[in-house]
From TrEMBL:
This protein's record includes keyword Signal: yes
Recorded coiled-coil stretches: none
Principal location: membrane
Similarity comment: Belongs to the SusD family.
Protein name: Starch-binding associating with outer membrane
Organism lineage string: Bacteria, Pseudomonadati, Bacteroidota, Sphingobacteriia, Sphingobacteriales
Domain SusD-like N-terminal: 87-218
Keyword Nucleus attributed: no
Organism this protein belongs to: Pedobacter xixiisoli
A GO-annotated cellular component: cell outer membrane
Top-level taxon: Bacteria
Subcellular location: Cell outer membrane
Domain RagB/SusD per the UniProt entry, residue ranges: 363-486
Length: 486
């Protein structure tokens, strides 16, 4: 096959963003339509690469960085001095914030780049659309998910698609509204393309697209867009998931975090899974356990004792934290002096769950991104906001979560505002350490109310809601601008 030279389609052009340039290169051996995408298996194989930058030895969600970036909320506490500014709502004091933000940026755009390539090549493929559309739906779901995190972490970012990636260095950053509109369009398409059930638990389903769209609408209803009409859409999307008859709450909260249940759990709607046998793996079990007291982890982050003390007692609290080390030492007497997170501790055979030192620093861990309890709480919040008062259905949704947690049902007759506060508090407890609380505080503009007394030394403003953009990206992309306050 003769060599062909031309401007490349966005394959891995932005895989680390340091290489995000318009280039010409020999395409021999590259996975383009004339060399690789001959059948549906080629497309299926290719899109699997979009998961690796998120949860496979890349530190995005499987280790430190996403958790540290969201440590301004009450649930995450870390002890690493050079990162303290992320937790204390003063990232400006961090000497090298790129250590955290660059992997998040690169990981998301790597996954987006792969999704863009697949969507672009699918448009011109002769493969039967009934076979191809589910893979396209998968790509569009993953692209939407990545942009959803990017716009909440960084605000205005370049909106790279299958049509414009080769112009990445000259593109202006897109408005937050335009990014959200793009996310919505991708998820609506994914809803239509994805199957209701996947044989591979790692892949998104129609329900995952609907649930993520509900969460996107809920976020659009809050800051900075404040499109309050989106509450009704969030309610409708959550209702759609609730009526599917596919998902349900686990009877026991602790079963959610049992590695043996990870593939049969009906509460998990979309989850990132690691595979330690393929050369990658999750490190969540290492970063969230201490290096002392026979634990032999890294102790990068855990939770704040103040958060633990406020957390309602019951089986949910027992399953969310662990306070006694393998050698019997209470957390108060460790060099961390804060409780540890139990949710990610059972990470498969290589993690030696509660039995001794980890067998490996990389295990087959998993991290839920969407689960049914989240959908119920989205419904409760959105219905109350859209309808002006809590309905019986809204009460029922939150009460299912509370009863499973060992709590009493909410008292009836609450005002709209009191019910809203109860739902936001419930999200805080139920979804702790699952990439929710920080974003909830930002979209409802509650950061100062929630954390002002924790960090009185910080002048909390709206500038604190966004992370700084990586220096390398700012240097390479002519249209990119740093966020205010950095």
């Amino acid at each position: 096959m003769k060599n062909i030279t031309r401007t490349i389609l966005p394959l891995f052009i932005c895989i680390a963003f340091a290489g995000c340039v318009k280039v010409k290169e020999d395409l021999t051996g590259q996975p383009t339509s004339d060399k690789f995408f001959h059948n549906i298996e080629d497309f299926q194989s290719y899109i699997s690469g979009a998961y690796a930058p998120l949860f496979q030895d890349n530190f995005t969600f499987e280790g430190d960085y996403a958790f540290i970036a969201e440590a301004g909320a009450e649930d995450i506490y870390h002890r690493i001095g050079r990162w303290r500014g992320f937790e204390e709502l003063n990232v400006k004091q961090v000497s090298n914030p790129d250590e955290i933000v660059r992997p998040l940026w690169n990981g998301a755009y790597s996954s987006i780049s792969i999704s863009n390539t697949l969507v672009g090549l699918a448009d011109t493929s002769s493969i039967d659309k009934t076979l191809l559309n589910p893979v396209v739906g998968e790509a569009r779901f993953l692209r939407a998910l990545n942009y959803f995190f990017m716009v909440r972490w960084f605000g205005e970012v370049p909106l790279l698609t299958e049509k414009n990636t080769i112009e990445a260095t000259s593109l202006p950053q897109s408005s937050v509204a335009d990014i959200y509109n793009f996310i919505v369009a991708d998820l609506i398409a994914a809803e239509g393309f994805l199957p209701a059930i996947q044989t591979n638990a790692n892949k998104p389903t129609k329900g995952a697209a609907s649930a993520l769209l509900a969460k996107v609408y809920l976020t659009m209803a809050g800051f900075p867009l404040n499109q309050t009409a989106k509450y009704a859409l969030a309610k409708d999307q959550a209702t759609k998931v609730m009526n599917m008859g596919i998902y349900s709450l686990n009877t026991n909260f602790s079963d959610l975090w049992n590695w043996n249940n990870r593939l049969t759990n009906r509460e998990l709607i979309f989850t990132l899974y690691a595979n330690s046998q393929s050369g990658g793996g999750s490190q969540l079990h290492m970063v969230s356990r201490p290096g002392t007291n026979s634990e032999q982890g890294w102790g990068d982050w855990g939770t704040d004792k103040r958060f633990y003390d406020q957390f309602p007692n019951g089986p949910r609290k027992d399953a969310s934290f662990y306070t006694t080390m393998i050698d019997g030492t209470n957390f108060i007497n460790t060099n961390f002096a804060n409780p540890f997170v139990a949710k990610y501790r059972n990470a498969g055979p290589r993690s030696n769950f509660f039995t001794g030192p980890p067998a490996s620093d990389k295990a087959d861990g998993y991290s839920p991104i969407l689960r049914y309890a989240d959908v119920l709480l989205i419904y409760a919040e959105a219905a109350n906001q859209a309808e002006g008062s809590p309905s019986t259905a809204a009460y029922d949704a939150i009460d299912k979560v509370r009863v499973r947690a060992g709590l009493a049902k909410l008292p009836t007759g609450l005002s709209k505002d009191d019910f809203d506060k109860a739902v936001l508090a419930e999200r805080n407890w139920e979804l702790a350490f699952e990439h929710n609380r920080w974003f909830d505080l930002c979209r409802r503009q509650l950061v100062k109310d929630a954390l002002g007394t924790w960090y009185p030394q910080t002048n909390i403003t709206n500038n604190n809601y966004l992370l700084p953009k990586p220096i390398t990206a700012l240097q390479l992309m002519k249209g990119l601008r740093q966020n205010p306050g950095y």
